[in-house]
Design a protein that fits this description.
This protein has helices spanning about 10-20, 165-170, 250-255, 265-270, 335, 350-360, 365-380, 390-400, 405-415, 470-475; strands at about 50-60, 60-75, 75-90, 95-105, 110-120, 125-130, 135-140, 145-150, 160, 175-185, 190-205, 210-220, 220-230, 235-240, 245-250, 270, 285-290, 305, 310-315, 380-385, 400, 420-430, 435-445, 445-450, 465-470, 485-490. With about 500 residues, the chain is α+β, with helices and mostly antiparallel strands. The protein folds into two domains: about 10-255, no CATH class; about 270-490, C8orf32 fold (Roll). A hairpin with a 2-residue loop joins strand 3 (about 75-90) and strand 4 (about 95-105).
């Protein structure tokens, strides 16, 4: 039997956290504002035919990576290439993360097409897209076996890598505010990003003083600040939890990387608590006080209730007697939605269906079948910290990953045999801290929690659910990281 590893933030949240906050891929702010008129920008400042900008990435004073953005003029606009390199320590396991974005944008810096890739040495993720009018056509998967997806857009968006080019074209003024519809290739969503020109001030970088504009933005309720010079060139970017980008040169940017022996990013994001819990895997009741209650916090049944800032969690109690036999064939639209395949949860894939049916054999009881799927995933997936975008087909092929990979393949296998299932992201307790974590829920007679990393069904009461859903939902919790405080009031 494989030993359950320490609980950790899901790989996907790590990716979103780093790539969005540190490398200006700011996709998800929650404002209502009139979009900036981009049509007049080219009249304000002529653009160079090509440019290259390098920046070093620091966390709490340690250099952990670099970014380079290259832009060149093409016939119908610009080609933007962005490379991000990071070295991270995940539970003592060193990982090098490399992402590439190549985008073709029009004269107003709005997206025409893109290619995005992410590699961490274990698993590669690639996705490309092309915009026709307001329709975005996405392509993902192995060559010759690509999956496609059509997303209807309200308007043509920008991509994060092109935002710096926009500022080079605009003569900024203090007090100005810009709103961009920005597409994110990881979560495959488009959201507005607001940037305000707050002040003009001097900033010192590597002993040299620059005249700069100070710009501020809101990222999921958290402030981000960056400085650009009078020509629109990035000088410095400052995020939360000590993340900073600083202007650099090609020769300097790659040097002096702190190969991860110090800061562990699972530990950095963990929530420390004063009161320790004994035997946490056996806990059936937990009462905590939260310093903030997010609007998306799920309260869907007796397991998790909240009053004010007091959250109570009660482990589900048997018997779990389903009202249906596999496969679910009712007419509840909400449950039917949790049987449908998704772009990264390919429950209709022939190999996933074959494996799922083999696991449960002829069992028709949803609870027993779900437990068999849970046991198979626990036994057959190597438990490794993986920084990638979880893809059920790739997970079944590679059979390795952390909590998000376990939760993704669990969802696909359960749906493949006709059990409504969903991914859950939240926190779980271990050794005086709550770690960000992903697990599942399957619908039996109600939603029942299950954790393939810990081989629990239902899960213990130290699992605090923050949100239901896949990548497009999980990014919402990033604003809580480093800001959430938990006070344990009672447990048993």
């Amino acid at each position: 039997m494989r030993k359950a590893v320490i609980y950790k933030i899901s790989g996907v949240v790590i990716v979103l956290f780093w790539l969005f906050v540190l490398a200006e891929l700011v996709k998800r702010t929650n404002f209502n504002s009139t979009s900036v008129d981009l049509a007049h920008i080219d009249e304000k400042r002529p653009l160079e035919k090509g440019s290259e900008e390098w920046m070093e990435i620091f966390v709490k004073g340690r250099k952990v990576g670099y970014t380079v953005t290259r832009v060149r003029k093409i016939e119908e606009g610009f080609e933007v290439r962005e490379e991000i390199f990071l070295t991270v320590n995940l539970m003592g396991s060193a990982r090098e993360i490399l992402s590439y974005t190549t985008a073709q944008v029009d004269e107003r810096f709005l997206l025409n097409s893109f290619d995005f890739s992410l590699s961490s040495g274990l698993i590669d993720f690639k996705i490309s897209g092309k915009i026709k009018e307001n329709d975005l056509y996405l392509l993902m998967g192995e060559e010759g076996k690509e999956e496609t997806r059509l997303i209807k857009l309200p308007s043509k968006p920008m991509i994060g890598a092109a935002m710096t080019q926009f500022f080079k074209s605009s003569k900024l003024k203090t007090g100005e505010s810009f709103t961009f519809p920005v597409f994110d290739p990881i979560s495959m969503t488009t959201n507005p990003a607001i940037i305000k020109v707050v002040a003009k001030e001097n900033i010192k970088i590597n002993g040299k003083t620059y005249k700069a504009f100070r710009l501020e933005m809101n990222f999921l309720g958290r402030p981000l600040v960056f400085w650009i010079d009078e020509k629109g060139v990035s000088l410095k970017e400052k995020g939360f939890m000590g993340f900073t980008l600083v202007r650099s040169t090609p020769a300097k940017a790659r040097l002096g990387l702190d190969r991860p022996k110090g800061i562990d990013f699972y530990e950095l994001s963990a929530v420390k608590v004063a009161k320790k819990i004994r035997n946490p895997r056996e806990i059936t009741y937990l009462k905590v006080r939260l310093n903030q209650v997010p609007s998306f916090l799920p309260i869907d049944g007796p397991r998790q209730t909240i009053s004010g800032g007091i959250l109570c969690i009660q482990k589900e109690r048997p018997p779990f007697k389903a009202f249906y036999s596999i496969p679910y064939s009712g007419n509840d639209n909400k449950l039917l939605n949790h049987l449908k395949p998704e772009m990264l949860i390919q429950s209709e894939d022939k190999e996933i269906i074959r494996v799922a049916k083999k696991i449960i054999n002829e069992i028709k009881d949803p609870f027993m079948a779900a437990k068999m799927v849970l046991g198979w995933v626990f036994e057959n997936l190597e438990k490794l910290p993986v920084v990638s975008i979880p893809d059920a087909k790739e997970i079944l092929k590679n059979r390795k990953g952390d909590c998000n990979e376990h939760a993704t393949i669990m969802t696909a296998l359960l749906r493949a045999v006709g059990i409504p299932a969903r991914i859950v992201v939240g926190l779980v307790y271990k050794d005086g801290k709550f770690y960000y974590h992903a697990w599942n829920e399957a619908y039996i007679d109600k939603w029942i929690s299950m954790d393939a990393i810990l081989k629990q069904m239902p899960v213990d009461a130290t699992h605090i659910k923050l949100i239901n859903g896949g990548i497009e939902k999980q990014i919402q919790i990033v604003g809580m990281i480093g800001n959430l405080k938990i006070n344990i009031l009672d447990y048993r």
